[in-house]
Here is the input.
Amino acid sequence: MGDTTLSIGAVSYGIAAVAFVLLTGLLVSGWRGKFQGALLAAAAGVTALWAGLSAYASAAAGALSAFADLLEIARDGLWLLFLWRLLVSRALSEDIPTHQRMKRWFGFVTFVFAVIFITTLALHTHLLAFSAQGTFITVIIGRVVLAVIGLALVEQLYRNAPEAQRWAIKYFCLGLGALFAYDFYLYSDAMLFRVADAGIWSARGFINALV
Here is the structure.
């Protein structure tokens, strides 16, 4: 990457960090003691930390990029947990018979998330020894999987909402769906060409700020 790309990336992710810091502040100030509200604030807060660290890594030519990678996975995990919590709450309130199946789905997603996080951590700490290309592909596949799970949960949330309530969650589903869709675009492109596109990666901060 050149200096220009690094500068764009730093600005892009810096703007995303500021946006999510503001969102986190609004969520914390309006928190009413509910678990879902705490999850939403935590997801926004970790997203702010990830964006800030990504901005620093971009400006410092990759410094602390391993921590940014792990924070990105944590960010995805919290958003997935929040989506699952919304789905479970709706199932309980409406006595949807698929509640038990959703619990098994949660166990599966938790297992997948744990495998991706532990594998990424092991690769960055050299507990697993792959070639550079093997490490890259392994990490990218994990990100694609998380993006697909996120898109599936967003779709399920919108589909299972009563038609009268869909307007209220429309922007939330569009925003979070866009976040996972852009990640899928970034990482599927990287998986196809065996290298992450610098322009797509740098623009992701702006996309997250818009979200």
